[in-house]
Amino acid sequence: MNGQQSKIDSILTLLKKDKPDTNKVIHTNDLCWEYQNIGKYDISLQYGKVALDLALQLNFNQGIVASYGNIGVLYMEQGDYPKALEYYFKGLKIAEKFGNKKGIARNIGNIGSVYMQQGDYPKALEYYFKVLKTFEEIGDKGQISTILGNIGIGYWYQGDYPKALEYYFKALKMHDELGNKNRIATDYGNIGSVYHAQKDYPKALEYYFKALKMSEEIEDEGKITIWLNNIGSLYTTLKKYDEAEKYLLKSLSIAEQISSLDDVKLSHQHLSELYEALGKLAKELFHYKKYITTRDSIFNNENIKKTVQAQMNYEFDKKEAVTKAEQDKKDVIAVGEKQKQKIITYSVSGGLFFVLLFAFFIFRGYRQKQKANIIITQQKHEVERKNQIIEEKNKDITDSINYAKRIQQATLPNKKEIYSALTNCFILFKPKDIVSGDFYFFHKNNQSAFIAAADCTGHGVPGAFMSIIGSEKLNDAVLQSTDTSEILKLLNKGIKISLRQSDSNESTRDGMDIALCYVDTENNIVKYAGANRPIWIIRKGHTEVEEKKATKTAIGGLTDDNQHFDTHELKLQQGDTFYIFSDGFADTFGGQEEKKLTTKKFKEILLSIQDKTMKEQEQHLNNFIENWKDGTEQADDILVIGVRL
Fold first, then answer.
1. Do 380 and 491 belong together in one domain?
2. In angstroms, how far is the first alpha carbon of the chain from the final one?
3. Which residues pair with residue 429 across a beta bridge?
C-alpha cells in the first residue's frame, strides 16, 4: 500500500480504539479529508456526515465547524457549488458564534473560492490575502500553503502568469517541506497550466507528467483525470492525435467512474476538439452533444437558483430571528407598562378606600413600586440587549444581500469591455434594492457587438434569480445565431425549459421583457428585436424621437415556444444615437405631485441633452432622477443604455 493508504489505515486503527468522544470526531474528520484527497468522494462524504452527527450530539463546536468545512470542500471538489456554499456558511455561523479564529479563517477562505468560481477574481484574491495573514498569525503551515496555491490560481485566471508562477512555486516549496504529496501534485499541475498558457509546451508536459506520477502514487483518481485531460488536450495542440486520444479516453473513463461532472464535461469537450481536428464528424458531434448535456446539468437553472438560495437561506434565518426579537421587545415593554399601571392603581385605590390605614398602604405602595422599578429596569436592559441583537441581525442581513449582489455582478459584463467596443456609450444601472431584476448584456462578435437591456419579473432577490438565468441563456443563444429575432426565440425556449414552463405546469409564469441590438459599427447598421421593450432613435440634428416598437409579448411565461419576434434593421449615420431601457426610469414616482415621470417626459429629457457627450448624458439622467425622487422610495429597478455611432 502507498503512503496515503498507510495514513488512512493508521487513522482507522485509532478510530477503532476511540470512545464516542471528541477524539472520535477528530479522527473521523481526518478520514473524511484523506479520502477526499484521493478522490474517494462517496466514502469521504460518509465519514464527513458521521463526524458531523457525532459532533452535534456532543455539542463539540470545533468538530462541528471542521465537519461543515470538510463536507463543503467535498461538494466543491465535485462541482456542487450550491451545496458547498450551504456548508461553508453553516460552518462560518458556528465559528463566529464561538470565536473560533481558525474556523472563521478557513470558511472565509472557502467562500473566497466561491468568488473564484463566480469569476470575481479580484474579490477572491482580497479574501485569500486576508485569510493568509490570519493563518500566518496562527502559524498553520498547512493552510498557508493551500492559500498560496489559491492566490496563484487567482492570478492565473487574470492572466498574470509571472505572479501565478511566483505563488505556485511558493506553495510547492511549502508542500514539499510538509511532505503533502496530494498538494505537491496539484502544484505541479498548476505550474504546468501556466506554461501551457504561455505556450511553453515542453515545460507544460514536464509538469503535467510530474503531477500525474504523483497522483498515481497516492491513487488520487480525482486529480488523475485532470492531468490526463490536460495532457490529452496539449497533445491535440501538438497534433499528436493518437497520444491525445489515448489520454483523453482514459480521462473520460475515470471521470465517469468517480462521477466527476466537471471532468466528464472537459473530457467530452477535448475529445470533440480532437475529432474535429481529425475530421471525424460523427465522433465530434457525439462528444460535443455529451459536452453540452453535461455542461447544462452542472450549470442549469436549478443549480444557479440553489447557489443564491444557499446565501438567501442564511439571510432569511437571520431575518426570522430579527422578527422574533422585535416581537419580544414589544411584549417586554407591554408587560412592564401594565405592571407599573397596576401598581399605581392599587396604591391610589388603597388610599381612597382605607383612609385609616393610609400610612400603611403608602408604605406598601412605595415598596411595590420599588420592586416594579427593579423589574422595569431589568426589562429595559433586556430591551436594550434585544435592540443590539436586532442591529446585529440587520447588519448580517445587509451583508448577506451584498454577497448575493456580488454573485449577480459576476454574471454582468465588464463595463470597460463594453466602453472599449462601443466608445460613445453609457449604461445607467440603478437597482431598486441591493440586487436587481434588470440586467444588461454584451457580447462582442468581431467588428460587431450585441447589447441588450432586460427587465425580469420582479425586483430584489426574485428578480435577481431571473436575471442570472436570463443572462446565462442569452449567452448560449448568441453563440448559436447572429439573427436578433432567432436569438430571442432561442432565449424564450431556453427560459421555458429552465423554469419547466408548459401549458400544464402553472408553478411559474416568470419571464422578462428585453430589447436586443446587433450593432455593426463598421457600417453603422443596428438590427433590433424586442419583447415588450422598444428602441428609441434620435438622429443627429433632429428634434423628435423615432421609435421602433417591440413584439407585444414577453420572453418565457405564457409565450408560445415558437413565438416569432420582429427584427428591424436601422441604417444610422455618424452622430445618431439610440436608447434601450427598462420601464423603471419612466415609472419613477416623484416631482411636486409625486406622480410617475411618464414616457413622454423621458423622451423630452433625452431630446434636451443631445448636445452632451454620452458620459454627460449619463450624469444628467442620474442627477435628474435623484432630484425627481427627492426622497421618494424608488419603485422599480432602473436601466438605461445609450449608444451614439
1. no
2. 69
3. 639
The torsion of the CA quartet 503, 506, 512, 513, rounded to 10 degrees, works out to 60
Element housing 72 (H / E)? helix 61-77
242 assigned to some structural domain: no
Q: What is the CATH number of the domain that holds 115?
A: 1.25.40.10
Assess whether 211 and 84 both reside in one domain. Answer: yes
3-state DSSP assignment of residue 446: coil
Check: CB of residue 426 under 8 Å from CB of residue 459. no
Is 247 a domain residue?
Answer: no
Are the CB atoms for 149 and 184 separated by under 8 Å? Answer: no
Strands 535-538 and 546-548: antiparallel
Comparing 389 with 463, which gets the higher pLDDT? 463
Instruction: Give the count of domains, the chain.
Output: 3
What does the alpha-carbon distance between residue 515 and residue 195 come to, in Å, rounded to a whole number?
43
Regarding whether 130 and 8 lie in a shared domain, the answer is: yes
d(CA 401, CA 407): 10
Q: Give me the amino acid identity at 556.
A: G
* Burial per residue of 281-302, b for 16 or more beta-carbon CB atoms within 10 angstroms, e otherwise: eebbeebbebbeebbbeebebe
- 242 burial type by CB count under 10 A (0-12 exposed, 13-18 middle, 19+ buried): exposed
Q: Which helix (H) or strand (E) holds 443?
A: strand 438-445
Q: For residue 255, tell me if it sits in a domain.
A: no
pLDDT 10s digits, 513-532: 999 999 998 899 999 999 99
Range of the domain at 170: 3-219
Which residues are CB-neighbours of 505 under 8 A, at least 6 positions away? none
Beta carbons of 552 and 519 less than 8 angstroms apart: no
Answer yes or no: are the C-beta atoms of 277 and 239 closer than 8 Å: yes
Residues in the chain: 645
CA-nearest of 604, 609, 540, 542 to 572 is 540
Co-location of 102 and 206 in the same domain: yes
Whole-number percent of the chain with pLDDT over 70: 80
One-character DSSP codes across 563-590? ----EEEEE--TT-EEEEE-STTTT-EE
**Do 135 and 105 contact (CB within 8 A), yes or no?**
yes
Query: At residue 584, does pLDDT exceed 50?
Result: yes
Give me the amino acid identity at 225: T
At 357, list the grid cell: 390605614
∠ CA 600-424-635 to the nearest 5 degrees? Answer: 40
**359-411, pLDDT tens digit by residue?**
444 445 545 555 555 555 555 555 665 566 566 556 656 655 665 666 667 77
Displacement of CA 173 from its chain's centroid (Å):
33
The answer to whether the CB of 470 falls within 8 A of the CB of 531 is: no
Residue 132 region, left (φ>0) first, then alpha (ψ -120 to 50), else beta?
alpha
C-alpha cell at 618: 449619463
Q: Identify whether 263 is part of a domain.
A: no
What gap in Å lies between CA 150 and CA 165, rounded to an integer?
12
Longest CA–CA span in the chain (Å) reads 115
Cα distance between residue 106 and residue 85, in whole Å: 13
